[in-house]
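Lab notebook page, bench 4
Experiment: in silico fold of construct C2
Operator: M.H.
Input chain length: 305 residues
Purpose: comparison with the prior construct
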Amino acid sequence: MKQILLLFLLLTTFYSRGQNIYSKAFGNLKNKAIIFIHGGPSGNSTLFEYTTAEKLAEKGFYVIIYDRRGEGRSIDSLATFTYQEYFKDLNDIYKKYNIEKANIIGHSFGGLVATLFSEKYPQKVESLILAGALFSQQETYNNILKSVNEIYINNNDTLKLNQINEVKKLDNNSAEYRAKCFELASENNFFKMPKPTKISEKLREDYKNNIFENNIRNQNAPIMFYKNESLKNIETKYNLKKIKNQIKIYAVYGKQDRIFGESQINEIKEIVGEPNFSLIDNCSHYLFVDQQDAFINNLVNWLKK
């Protein structure tokens, strides 16, 4: 059985517009489809693919992962890194796997892609799941800068305080501004699980030891995105309020995902409604690894109603 599954996975990489788009499917195609959209730009789906996709499929879903054009293993020197290109390739995913409707998980930046796609093609979306997803980029950047500023004031770190002031002078619609904000967040462990469990540590260790070489990141992707895409620094709260009348929207966030402020978490909870919202404790940005069981259980409870 494992040999058959491996053969199936090896055959799922497909070509779109003559270019190689890396994708894999897990589970029975007769089950409800779930498409995972990774973060970025410059991200990939490897962490979700090798830690969570198959376990989610075992719960009775047909799980599809892919790397966006020009990112991860979908190497393409002609990629434009625009939302329209993202939509085109996602539509090709539907065609490749003969899917009419799917539940879409948007993680981090992937939440923006998933939301805008859902607004444009609501007939193709059974439900939208926001997983640690961005929905107001500037509010997130503001929260990061405010939070790290408080840390450096408490530490009397004048060098870092000066660095924050320099970041604030940058063009908010630039790749450099985005990068500097997330660098500050990473330096202060905003993306790390506060109290790693044995399960989460094993997931990360196995990934690092066996799969990490596939963690390909195109560092030029954000630069090209900010060069070619007009929607550089957006919020999708209005979009979410609009489409929730057409499709189901769920949101799951890590309680200790420090790139989001409390007001942002409360706002997204209000938009999707309390029954469709989950805040997982001892959990940061990569919630499907930090608290995998809780993450999967939320999806099962929502999607198997």
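Observations: Residues 1-18 have pLDDT under 50 and may be disordered. The beta strands are 14-16, 19-21, 23-26, 32-37, 61-66, 102-107, 125-131, 248-254, 277-280.
Next step: discuss at group meeting.
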